[in-house]
Amino acid sequence: MEESGQAESEQPLQSFNTHEAGLASIPRWLEVLLAKEFFNSCLVHEAEKKNEENTLCLDCCTGLCSHCLPPHKAHNLLQVNFANVITQTTF
Ligand SMILES: [Zn+2]
Ligand SMILES: [Zn+2]
């Protein structure tokens, strides 16, 4: 005799994770920073020298290389160093 192996486990819909409260303190640009592979070459300026994206524009939430910088001069820029990433992201 065969049993239909359909294991229907009813999960309560109220599975709210409250880690949202913790995430709320993380600014958008930091999410970008953490999600992004930094220090990669700028795709726009891959033929140029010094094209590592080592600056983050907090206004545009995008990584910038030294050639991308000029249009963003008036924006809030975060210069990212390897050391800074560690120190500035310890909230
Ligand atoms: Zn910008
Ligand atoms: Zn660039």
Task: Please specify the SSE layout and strand pairing.
Layout: H1 19-23, H2 28-35, E1 55-57, E2 62-64, E3 77-79, H3 82-88
Bound molecules: zinc ion (2 copies).
One zinc ion binds at residues 42, 44-45, 51, 65, 67-68.
Folded structure, characterized:
The protein has 91 residues and is of the alpha+beta class. It has a domain at 28-88: Double Stranded RNA Binding Domain (2-Layer Sandwich), CATH 3.30.160. Helices cover 22% and strands 10% of the residues. The chain has helices spanning 19-23, 28-35, 82-88, and strands at 55-57, 62-64, 77-79. The chain has a three-stranded antiparallel beta sheet with strand order 2-1-3, with helices on one face. The protein is elongated. It starts with 18 loop residues before the first helix and ends with a helix. The model has no long low-confidence stretch (mean pLDDT 73). It binds zinc ion (ZN) (2 copies). The site of one zinc ion has 5 residues, from loops.
Please outline what is shown here.
It comes from Escallonia rubra. The protein has helices at residues 19-23, 28-35, 82-88, and strands at residues 55-57, 62-64, 77-79. The protein has 91 residues and is of the alpha+beta class.
